[in-house]
Amino acid sequence: MTALDSALAAAHLDKSKGMDFYSLFLNTELYLPLNELPSKEEPQKINPILIDKDGKLFLMLFDEESRLVSWAKRQIPYAQIPGFAIVQMMDPEILYVLNVGTEHYHQFVKDEIEWLRKTVEQNLKKQNE
Questions:
Q1: Whole-Å CA distances, 44 to 47, 48, 70
Q2: What is the distance between the alpha carbons of residues 122 and 126, in angstroms, rounded to a whole number?
Q3: Taking Cα atoms as reference points, which of 39, 25, 55 lies closest to residue 47?
Q4: What's the pLDDT tens digit per position in 1-58?
Q5: What are the pLDDT digits (tens) for 45-79?
Q6: Would you kindly state where each structural domain of the chain is located, as residue ranges?
Q7: How many CA atoms lie within 13 A of 20 on its CB side?
């Protein structure tokens, strides 16, 4: 069980622990599966794997490389990016699934993602003041 697994389980048992899970999610280096590695010319440009299900796009995120490999069933390119950066850079219409294929997966709904985006933006404003 990882730290994110534990935080998610605690949040399910006690809603007051939800903030602990979200804070940990935003500050964890997550594994983001990619279609290909970024080019040397544009190292900041990534092409994540998106899963289309019923017209909705899902971004798979993992807190351990072994979980990513287990999901993909092979070695694939990935980027390791903190949760807050993923929230900042991804289109808000894309939904997230954390640790799919494990006992402790979490599918983020649109409202959660919007709230996370606002939280990250507010924290950035505070840091720049």
A1: 10, 12, 26
A2: 6
A3: 39
A4: 999 999 999 999 999 999 999 999 999 999 999 999 887 787 678 899 999 999 999 9
A5: 889 999 999 999 999 999 999 999 999 999 999 99
A6: 30-128
A7: 15
DSSP string, 55-93: TEEEEEEBSSHHHHHHHHTS---EEEEEHHHHHHHS-TT
| Residue whose token pair is 């409202």 | 111
Instruction: Examine the pLDDT at 124 and tell me if it is beyond 90.
Output: no
Query: Right CATH number for 30-128 from 3.40.1350, 3.30.200, 3.40.1130, 3.30.70?
Result: 3.40.1350
pTM value? 0.92
* The pair of three-digit structure tokens given for residue 81, joined into one six-digit string: 């990016």
